[in-house]
Amino acid sequence: MKGLPSETDFVVIGAGVAGLRAAIELAAAGRVLVLAKKQISKTHAESGEGGLAAVLSDEDEITLHLQDTLTAGDGLCNPAAVKILVEEGAQRIEELIAWAKHNNRNGTKLVFGPESGHSRGRVLHAQGESTGTEILRALHTKAHAQKHISIVESAFSTSLIAHDGRVTGVSLIEDKGTPQEVACSAVLLATGAMGQLYRNTTNLDAATADGVALAFHAGAEVSDMEFVQFHPTVLYLKKAPRFLLSEALRTEGAHLRNIELDRFLAKYHPLGELAPRDVVARAIVHEMEVSRAKDPFVYLDLTHLSPAKVQKRFPRIFATFMQHNIDITEDLIPVRPAAHYCIGGVRTDLDGRASVAGLYAAGEVAATGVHGANRLPSNSLLESLVYGARAGKAMRDELKPAPKRETAHKAASSNGPVDAGAEGLISQIQDLMWNDVGIVRTRVAMQKAIKSLEEMAPKLANPKTRRAHEAANLHLAGLLVARSALAREESRGAHYRVDSPAHDDKKFLKHSVIRGDRVVFL
Ligand SMILES: Cc1cc2nc3c(=O)[nH]c(=O)nc-3n(C[C@H](O)[C@H](O)[C@H](O)COP(=O)(O)OP(=O)(O)OC[C@H]3O[C@@H](n4cnc5c(N)ncnc54)[C@H](O)[C@@H]3O)c2cc1C
Prior knowledge:
The chain is an alpha/beta fold.
């Protein structure tokens, strides 16, 4: 790890799959500074138990992956973006496999598996380890080998610097709490998710919508924010982390049972346990409501499957649960849905360009239109790879000299994670969003949430600590999600309204785009 320069060619905010893949591309054209607000190991790819979708086998076809993605997207995918994803995916993975082989001569065995929503077994798993961990390892090693790439951890980006309508740098709080500015030719946002907006989430603490807030304050367009994907099956045990139980378990035959121990999904969808994520999540919410339990949940049941097969196929899940005294081959697992993936974000073109010059976005923070209104499982690691590389190429081709600027050293701030005031505000936002802008939405509840969020605004102005910045970012993202969800007066994909349960293609077969306080549909 190196120190912070005051000037560089490119700044990449985020050291996950999208940020590192872009940095590797950029290193051919100039100096690249990659910033991560936590340790680089703390990214979501490390959690990728499910895998990565790609058409690499003879039994599969690109057109089928395209069609499955469009079907999941419920009418709102950008077909050109999906075509790029499925066509360029194989090349991105083959190069990754070559980099991984170069680093690890013993090799990691890769196998294809089935997954819900995919009509062919095209989800790639690295056996014995998490797929995401293997991808990150290959990217880290490749990035570290490039002398033009510097990766700086614990550097929290607080705002973007712009001159004459162009982004020309980043303000940040470095490890010791000192504010600093870095001038550059262009900035890539690869800041990942925003799941911390919700009381229950699979996302890490770092998923606080920073990239969306940075882009919004710089005047960039943000779109599709109403589409938040909730994962249906997440461990629900007091004092245990919200550990995700991937679709792969249900694909291998796991059942869902309500607290009466009855299987219930066939009542809601002909595919039963293999129904799309949003259908399963809503069915669970309904079963939890009718149970009238004070602290409701349902069970995931693997006890009828071969214990040896379960342990072999899911070694990480098996080992993690044993730490909580749950033997998944013998015990029922209490689960609830939780916020998992943000489909919307910074609106980009097919090369990651945002609507403000000098600003790019890739990975989960970007809204390329690839996922439409609902993401097909295992498409997001692929998106981070494919669109990270494309954004890197575009930035490289549009390189401009970084502006010369005096960097002012300001008073020390705080980069510490502890700030009781901010913590309390975050907790309020999480409850509001979970209760009023969650899996099942109504006009009245969303209007109430917007009013409460607007009333909180003065408490979030002028943040002084890292946690206070995160609280302000979550507050802004909460408002953007709630306003977009209220404006979309229909149900589609991951967005479900009891008061408008059907599609309205005439008015809403369009993307929501935030313009200031307004939401327009384009
Ligand atoms: C539990 C779980 C399981 C998943 N499983 C799968 C799966 O099986 N298959 C699949 O395709 N997808 C899966 N996903 C989704 C996928 O992992 C993510 O979409 C993907 O990893 C996002 O990559 P990214 O590079 O965009 O962001 P991330 O990997 O989240 O990286 C974000 C980076 O930005 C940095 N950052 C953020 N804000 C700032 C700031 N203000 N200043 C400086 N740095 C900042 C962070 O420190 C981090 O380095 C899963 C997600 C979760 C949560």
